[in-house]
Amino acid sequence: ATGDYQQSDAAHHLHAFVDQKALNSEGARVMVRGEGVYLWDNDGNRYIDGMSGLWCTNVGYGRQELIDAASRQMKELSYYNMFFHTTHPAVIELSERLFSLLGDRFSHVVYTNSGSEANEVLIRTVRRYWDIMGKPGKKVLIGRINGYHGSTVGSASLGGMAFMHEMGDLPIPNITHVDEPYWYANGGDLTPEAFGKRAALSLERKILELGADRVGAFVAEPFQGAGGMIFPPDGYWQEIQRICRQYDVLLCADEVIGGFGRTGEWFAHRHFGFEPDLICIAKGLTSGYVPMGGLLMSRQVGEALVERGGVYAHGLTYSGHPLAAAVALANLDVLEKDHLVERTKNDTGPYLQRALREAFADHPLIGEIQGVGAVAAIQFAKNKATRERFSDEAELTWHSRTVGFELGAIVRSTNGRLIVAPPLVIDHAQIDELVGKMRQAVDATAKKVLG
Ligand code: PLP
């Protein structure tokens, strides 16, 4: 029974980013089944998944093609590694597919099991690259305040969340952070574009302060996910790119959320119009069916490591795991066969964005809706004209999220914003259902606040 599961769960688990004591008194929801955009819990309640699991089930739950590919691969070659001068067909084919999506500027990949590991590999690879280029001083990596790149030592250091740094004495040396392009909160009287430029210039200031001969890379999410789903103003990324090129700093895009169709492009950097040198992927690569991530390298970096780097002193037992590679290939097949990226760009994405704006534009609690494709954030505001925020906005968005769950719609509350990112297979009727429930949930919060 659900109560037994909850008791046992409470006895053994420390859940991610929660006060475990508080969760224990409430009991975790026990999820047992998924199909398409829906999930069911152990008591038979159905939820529409407005979060694609954790921004990962891009093709939805239970796709037979992925299940069959997994089963075939497990029978054929359940495991082998890439250590003993060995490789295997699934991983070879996967890399061919990824680089055909990325184009000729990119050439090399190191596979990992997660997005956190992709960022760990990035840190070491950046430093190695500058070593072999004869600039060993370029050790510093610059991330952004409230950026999120994972929970391991290096990736959480790259991330800019102070409460995470408190756990485990982070950041590690030679990692620092610059401004996030969060206009609604920090833009003051500036236009979004002027503010975006100012936020980008905080990178240039930091590089000048440290000295360009010490800075190896800038790492950021094309749009900031866990830190509140913040979409930078127009021109931000172009200014960032200008700065990185000017000071010979590698531009690294963490596409762990943005990759594989989320914005209506295969990669989010295309939506924002910039050219990274390194790209972290995970999540949508396999639609979360099995763990897999990777660090993708531009030809400039990849070929330098091959030609001049000698031994690449890094390896994971499960790098390029046959099962993960086979599932990733089947996942790419589904994304292509069902035209899910194009559909997100031209059909369901615009439909979702419009539905959210119609539902919330005049809502008394809501200040702004940001989003593109199948991802959006709803900014709560006390006063729309001045962009004054509620002092307790985190509790308010948490309340809406909790009512949403009770109504059977999963959305997330993060950094005082309500965020939504449904599977790319969602259709119009399901978008209506999701947005309708979100509206009901936010209405319930409004009733609590405004009476
Ligand atoms: N990078 C970004 C942008 C993420 O959103 C996440 C996870 O949410 C990660 C990295 C870490 O990925 P993982 O949880 O697979 O380690």
TrEMBL record:
Keyword match Transferase: yes
Obligatory cofactor(s): pyridoxal 5'-phosphate
InterPro entries reported for this sequence: Aminotrans_3, Aminotrans_3_PPA_site, PyrdxlP-dep_Trfase, PyrdxlP-dep_Trfase_major, PyrdxlP-dep_Trfase_small
Family matches, as SUPFAM superfamilies: PLP-dependent transferases
Keywords on record: Aminotransferase, Pyridoxal phosphate, Transferase
GO molecular function, one term: transaminase activity
PROSITE patterns linked: AA_TRANSFER_CLASS_3
NCBIfam families xref list: PRK07480.1, PRK12403.1
Similarity remark: Belongs to the class-III pyridoxal-phosphate-dependent aminotransferase family.
Protein name: Aspartate aminotransferase family protein
